[in-house]
Amino acid sequence: MSQEHFFQRHQDTLGQALNAINTRSYWAAYPENPSPRAYGETAAADGEAAFNAHLGKAFQLEMPGITGEIAGEVSPYGIEMGVSYPKVDFDQLIPAMKQEVKAWRDAGPDVRAGICLEILERLNKRSFEVAHAVMHTSGQGFMMAFQAGGPHAQDRGLEAVAYGYRAMKEVPENATWTKPQGKHDPLVMNKNFHIVPRGVAVVVGCSTFPTWNTYPGLFASLVTGNPVIVKPHPASVLPAAISVQVAQEVLKEAGFAPHIVSMVADTLDAPVTKELATHKDVKVIDFTGSSFFGNWLERNATQAQVFTEKAGVNTVIIDSVHDIKAVARNLAFTLSLYSGQMCTTTQAIYIPRDGIKTADGQMSFDDVAQALSVATSKFLGDNDRACMVLGAIQAPATVARIKECESLGEVVLASEKREHAQFPNAEVHTPLILKVDASDIETYSEERFGPVSFLIATDSTAHSMELANQVISEKGAITLGVYSTDEEVLDQAEELAMDAKVALSVNLDGGVFVNQSAAYSDFHATGGNPAANASLTDTAFVARRFVVVQSRRHA
Amino acid sequence: MSQEHFFQRHQDTLGQALNAINTRSYWAAYPENPSPRAYGETAAADGEAAFNAHLGKAFQLEMPGITGEIAGEVSPYGIEMGVSYPKVDFDQLIPAMKQEVKAWRDAGPDVRAGICLEILERLNKRSFEVAHAVMHTSGQGFMMAFQAGGPHAQDRGLEAVAYGYRAMKEVPENATWTKPQGKHDPLVMNKNFHIVPRGVAVVVGCSTFPTWNTYPGLFASLVTGNPVIVKPHPASVLPAAISVQVAQEVLKEAGFAPHIVSMVADTLDAPVTKELATHKDVKVIDFTGSSFFGNWLERNATQAQVFTEKAGVNTVIIDSVHDIKAVARNLAFTLSLYSGQMCTTTQAIYIPRDGIKTADGQMSFDDVAQALSVATSKFLGDNDRACMVLGAIQAPATVARIKECESLGEVVLASEKREHAQFPNAEVHTPLILKVDASDIETYSEERFGPVSFLIATDSTAHSMELANQVISEKGAITLGVYSTDEEVLDQAEELAMDAKVALSVNLDGGVFVNQSAAYSDFHATGGNPAANASLTDTAFVARRFVVVQSRRHA
């Protein structure tokens, strides 16, 4: 097969993706609906069977330096996983990957983009299998695991390919430079401009979004010519392993070494990320996880370009609303979805202590709190639906945190443990909502990962904005929601968003949620506050993954 | 005057600059020839008079926080400078600049680009005045001070404006996102995407190229919305001060606070850069200077985006030549120009110890050395021309270094002190050329800033390449020149350049020199080896100076 084969095959899709990032209007390459019409009549059953076939087996990947096996994943739904993965000596793997830099570099942007798109398309075909893998490692409900772990993650990957491709293509491959010399002959130089990757890249995944948060870095590095090591979170290896396997398959078919995409798995007991991330030949790092470790990487992996997404205190400010019920329903979904284990879930909700204006007149703080509490309870009233939306808690520490947080304020809505009909051992917990005072800033300004949120009584909306600005500037945030019927307040919110460098959602009361972002259109994090030093995806996310090396000679 | 006035006026020039960066073929906005036809009959005399009028005076700038005056420049040509500059309390200045972020941000890319281009055009009109200021601070000869300090620096500034402008314009200002919902009405969101600057920027200048190395960072930060503090090297303040004054004039005329561009001067005895660079509100830093301080900034100014150009060991590899005389003449100019005080001047010249092939047969190492020595002596034979090309040595440490280096190898060409006809106190020194063995790697792999170069006897061209790769990868380099008549060797050189991430010039034997780079066409540094973490100018140089903050709401 010619190396250009995949590029020719996917050129049209790439063109649409490039158009999407130029306009940032709605587009998606991969259907988000897990319907037989989109994925085939047998896709659901085949995907589940493929997932089950992994259980209790040794997962195979092609990499130099395999020295044994490791395992250790625990399904938050309580099923037996028992998948083992290759244990790799990365002092053997990294030199072997370095040897492939030249071939992958010389393939050029078109061939690399074609291969990336083929990988994404094959991943799309395996979305059901990946969905089960995401579900049983992250704890996400199946529908979310399918969408966020499958097509949405794939679209984020394709978005990164498009940004990388555009940035590379903006550098001309060559130029003739003709400088007039008055009456003399001009100076004429022929110049070549080579796109040169930084070197070996590492993507450090997280336990909660093992594909969605891995694909942007993986594909941004890969399309720009860097071989990539995926270092999954030890609790969520299988979705990464399947992704790496697919990448290796495509690379091999196209005549490249499969280990241009490799995986270094580790365990909670014997983590290798620090050592891997500071390896002298690792030149690009993408990380999603704690602020503590993200900041450590930024300061210590100085040999690499480091892109981080860390923790923050996502925020909603309620000033005034038309219809409190619609607002409460919208927020109830946000607080419930995946038990708040999203890096975009609201934690701090600022409400004036004197209450808010609604279309039906003034509403007290406690009535707003009550509306939110009732909406959440109601939304989670049907246990089957609740379990689907809440998913399971990924980490025991998060389960423990719910309990620990109960004493941090006045309980507006207590968290309940729920029974999952299908998975009796699943840790399913409903949101805990607490009321606190604006003065309790130490309490609500610390990230409490999981289903914990604070309704914060402030002096006024101006006070809410001031506090939000302070907390976001100091602790970071990826999302800010503001509810107001007053255009002047909304203008102030726009200023606040620009000042704190956080994405703003205004008056969400329907089918769009503050914690969701759409590939090609919504920038996920700005890279301008402590929650992240990078954005998914902008030009800054791709431009530093390669350098331009020129050569010139007289024509 | 409308804020758009300058944009309308310069839109055409900006369009040409955008075209130039897209093609990277030859273009220049500002004439490099200091001729009366280009600059006007009286420009030379007026410029000199304007320069003289600064001497012995207090230079005025408009900034909050001025607490006194400082002075201390010493002309390398020995004239009395006696210019004093405002001493500023940057704990007053920075908050005042922060207050202007909103106005400058809201001006938008067009207005900001228009103002940048007006500043550059006015600087161009003052090129003679700036040339004298550059000459008497950096020690450059007048012609170089005019070209590199005037039009070439202005073109590098405009190039940065064009890159910043293009990057901002690639983000759509708004979008309508319409997501189909099957049989239901689609979800429709209106989205705004704001270009938001990082904050206050600082440009730390160097003593040798006070404008050329300052304008890219200054204009890249300014066009992307960041107010900028220029922190000149204490030895080269006047060129920066004139530049800031021009910027302030234009800002005021356009209705902005002049201190959106400010200057913080310091002295060698009381440097302020560390404190300034780690100020919590400084969010972007551009630096040109020593590796020691550049690395310190990269590691310590973690609150900021840091762009550095540092030291390196620029390299030439001679494998084979057609005409050794042409090659030697070309290299003689490179080694002589501004006494090697360029960040691009060759230091390490690798030659096989068994000699090289030429069109006239094999030539021994010593004959190659001799040819280079003779060409340099001949080129500098005429003392007036020599003084013009060599300029004066900027720093006493560099003068001392020439002497110190004499014992590092076998002297092929001794450095001579020359008398400058016009400036008897000028420190004018010809190049020192030493012969060393490949094994003396500790000697030639350390940067020896100034007119010192090493002819390194290697086992073969392959050995030369291996050593060059090692030294450049470890110590950095901005330029690599390779001479060979063998296309296979040139292919290897291309590989070496990509591997060490350094710009390559092949077989320069005419009017183009390895130490010169042309705006819009040659990338100055790649950002991929230790000589610099950034390139003048690529997309990575501008993309991190702003973030995108979006807002979305239901249509």
TrEMBL record, chains A, B:
Location of the Aldehyde dehydrogenase domain: 88-490
Family annotation (InterPro entries): Ald_DH/histidinol_DH (IPR016161), Ald_DH_C (IPR016163), Ald_DH_N (IPR016162), Aldehyde_DH_dom (IPR015590), PaaN_2 (IPR011975), Proline_metab_enzyme (IPR050485)
Keyword GTP-binding set for record: no
Domain of life: Bacteria
Cellular-component GO terms for this entry: cytoplasmic side of plasma membrane
Keywords: NAD, Oxidoreductase
PANTHER family hit by this protein: DELTA-1-PYRROLINE-5-CARBOXYLATE DEHYDROGENASE 1, ISOFORM A-RELATED (PTHR42862), DELTA-1-PYRROLINE-5-CARBOXYLATE DEHYDROGENASE 2, ISOFORM A-RELATED (PTHR42862:SF1)
Name this protein carries in UniProt: Phenylacetic acid degradation protein PaaN
Species of origin: Oceanospirillum linum
Phylogenetic placement of the source organism: Bacteria, Pseudomonadati, Pseudomonadota, Gammaproteobacteria, Oceanospirillales
